[in-house]
Amino acid sequence: MQFGYKLSTEGFGPKEIIRQAVAAEQAGFDFLEISDHFHPWLDNQGHSGFTWSILGSIAAQTERIGLMTGVTCPTMRYHPAIIAQAAATMALISDGRFTLGVGAGENLNEHITGEGWPAARIRHRMLREALEIIRLLWKGGYQSYDGEFLSLEDAQVFDLPETLPRIVVAAGGQASVSIAAELGDGLMATEPRAELVEGYVGRGGDGPRFAEVPLAYASSAGDAAAAVLEKEPWFATGWPVMSELPNPKNFQAASATVREEDVLKQFACGPDVERHLEVIGQFRDAGFENLVLHNGGPDPDGFMTFFAEELKPRLA
Prior knowledge:
alpha/beta; TIM Barrel; two-stranded antiparallel ribbon; 13 helices; 44% helix; 17% strand; oxidoreductase; Luciferase-like_sf
């Protein structure tokens, strides 16, 4: 089992994200997962730097820690040809440490191109085509592709690594689980749902299974929950809502009724190691093996010290 640290580009500026990445490597995390947004979830988060620029700097300033997008939508804001090139370059400059995490996207980030926001079934078909284009370009040579939604015309990625990056597909239901099993190299989820793992394995998926684990470290459970309520109450809306709302102000309205008890129910809040182990265990028991620890608390450095000195020894 491996443990990752979530870099939230919506919550911190680009230089702070890079600093946290270096600190996470020093704290003993196995890999980093970085969000890929155009907007923050809420206005008061206040940030949303360009993930691919940040990743390049992180690769240059770290040595061993794995790097992963969590996740990139390669269908609207980005054409899949651009992501094929970007991921290949990241694999080269990180000496093979990069994993491409992909998903069908959120309205929050993808509507900005003015092309509308398709229904979920259309987004899944678009994602299939995007992955086919990425795989095609990674074969080398000039390639073209004519899909229902996406096209490619006489394109070649010239700098390809000897070992291509893994593609891990985010899934919240069985339609995206199928895409992960058929076109991906791994599965990503945000809930401890065993049926996602079972569906993935049942469809022939044999790659690593990733999940984001909701934690919030602070000196007290109340302080930790307050930090989540201030900056991340949108978690309680659930993925069917999170994928559909177009702007931070919509998420603010949708999460206005979230209370401390809602946070405490889902997040491991405070300094209690046993509670953190309990929440992590829910994902382990559901069949996930690569766990991304997402700290919603107010003190990133305190969380990393907590992980290194108290949590990691117990997890080992």
